[in-house]
């Protein structure tokens, strides 16, 4: 079972002469399909469940080198992990924002940066203050997409790009459509992975006419 | 309900409100009575006492000052448009949602609002919490506004025949977690976690170049906030506030909490559950209690401000009433050099994307890059259906739940990516509409999001205007070029004002003088097509003043589909 060894996603398939599997293009899953989802099995949380944490099973270490199939599993596994984390994260983030605003900064790294409609907020102090000053909110997300970020950009720090959009109503203000993008980074232990926001970019779609 | 409190109650005058809730016998919550947050409350009438010796928060805190007995704080609860609601109904709806039982005092309607008073910070806090979560019978939200208040008149008028001793708050009580109506567990970390302990070469710690000193934003906005709140508070309160140095109180560095790591060392408090992450208070209160309580205090500084810092307590609750959003600004791009780099990149990218063969984009992507596309999911919005048709590979995970498909629809490797880009509709992007936020900038990564509009220039929906957000994660390859690692595109239907704005860019330059005949053509075309004169002119101009050609160019899309810009702004 993965859990020991390197936790870095291994994107460097050049050495293995990996080729992208063309037969993946058709949409019939092969066999039981389990090998597309990675070996981590049941997505259950361990230990005390803390709502403001985004926790997923440990990231699968790279499969042993050699087989093309193993390499294909690698990529799919990483994407799958990214999807699960992103989905979990988005649910927790917006619920915390709406209902437990004071705990929201728990989801951010110490030096995280937020760009909110062009306003830059850096560090937990400033973030806490900022979220405190924002009126109470009600978010509705109707779009979510995510990708694992290439290792070369992140200096080997496992990172996911999460993109969302939807509507938000801040108390005392009219409803806005918004776009929000996050970079989440993983903090890995043998038993689980905790995801936190390293960077956050938020903007109303109609920001120009909202002042 | 409001009558109950005033009967048979003998509250103390002035500051001493101790035990009045208990004496009333009804709807008294032990929690409210023994709230650990009942810090001595200095009403403005005793302003002189406040000013004298200018007590520091630590002294005021839990112990009370030598003279005054511990007293309660009162809050006014306002329900905007509450005049619509029957008193009993409204109060019962609120009580159902509210975690803490409360006893409303002096319920009345004032203008459009329903108002009443409650006693005790924790109750007020609970009420504030449920604002916006209540629905009336028309399914409209009920807001609850909370502001600090003087003791209601009806309560003041009660003769005081006895002083009911309030349990003196002490640090043990405050640290007794079971009394808190809050779920402390929810505030805590997995104790094994030490945030920021990733590998040393951590891009997240590198990403500091991006932002100006956070204090700039904070200081400015808080000062403005305070200034505007001063104007809005009733004059009695603002008199008090003027006597307190507000800016000093807002200096974060003075009020740093003890690192919560220390909390773990306290005994008998379930302390292993308490937090590992240190966080500084963003407003006011330094920790009065040692150990455990500081994490509580840091989460709820507003409550503790009440006694010690009257002004700030008022202002903290008043912020709920008067909270505004920060001003929205244009794209944040950091330095000029960065701005140039990114804008140049976008120009190059879109000139190929719009006017060249998109195969040319192979050079822009990393070998193992990723790309995905997403359309918002809103079953109530019929205009989205055309987008679903055009952008079949939409990977919106709100709609797409199949894990297999989620993997498949992520395009991986530059060849795959460019292949899918070539299959997307041909476009014309309006670069002048672009707003760009650069939200990560490190040595190895520039991550930025572009918001803008484009037009479809061929196919069934030719002429339709779309709005998009595109996020690029790139690696600088040289001083002048960026290599795309991740590319995420989301497309939506443009709003009428966005469409207008695009068109203003694409309109022909204001006319040369039209001949009589041309003028007649424009008029006729306008009548026949239903478009306004401006657009009629454009069509004719684009068709070299060949009337029939212009008419043909109006080939209409299928019925009932996307709003086609060529229908034009009919009304000016």
Give your account of this protein's structure.
The complex is a heterodimer of chains A (211) and B (572). By secondary structure, chain A is α+β, with helices and mostly antiparallel strands. Chain A is 22% helix and 31% strand. Chain A has a single domain, classed as Roll (Nuclear Transport Factor 2, Chain: A), CATH 3.10.450.50. Chain A has three helices and seven strands. Chain A is globular and about 45 Å long. The N terminus of chain A is likely disordered. Chain B contains 24 helices and 13 strands. In chain B, the strands form three sheets. In chain B, strands 7, 8, 9, 10, 11, 12 and 13 form a seven-stranded mixed β-sheet that branches. A four-stranded antiparallel β-sheet of chain B has the order 2-3-1-6. A two-stranded antiparallel ribbon of chain B has the order 4-5. In chain B, helix 15 packs across helix 16. The two termini of chain B are 57 Å apart. Chains A and B meet through helix 1, strand 2, strand 3, helix 2 and strand 4 of A and helix 10, helix 11, strand 7, helix 19 and strand 10 of B. Chain B: It is found in: Nucleus.
Blueprint (SSEs and pairs):
The complex is a heterodimer of chains A (211) and B (572).
Chain A: E1 54-56, H1 68-99, E2 108-116, E3 119-122, H2 124-133, E4 137-148, H3 151-154, E5 159-170, E6 175-188, E7 193-204
Parallel strand pairs in A: 2-7
Antiparallel strand pairs in A: 1-7, 2-3, 4-5, 5-6, 6-7
Chain B: H1 2-6, H2 20-24, H3 30-33, H4 47-51, H5 57-60, E1 74-79, H6 87-97, E2 105-110, E3 113-119, H7 121-129, E4 134-135, E5 141-142, E6 145-149, H8 153-156, H9 171-175, H10 203-206, H11 214-232, H12 235-242, H13 246-249, H14 293-299, H15 301-308, H16 310-322, H17 336-355, E7 365-374, H18 384-390, H19 403-408, E8 411-412, H20 414-423, E9 427-429, E10 435-441, E11 446-456, E12 465-476, E13 482-493, H21 496-506, H22 516-529, H23 533-542, H24 547-552
Parallel strand pairs in B: 7-13
Antiparallel strand pairs in B: 1-3, 1-6, 2-3, 4-5, 7-8, 9-11, 10-11, 11-12, 12-13
Helix pairs in contact in B: 11-16, 12-16, 15-16, 22-23
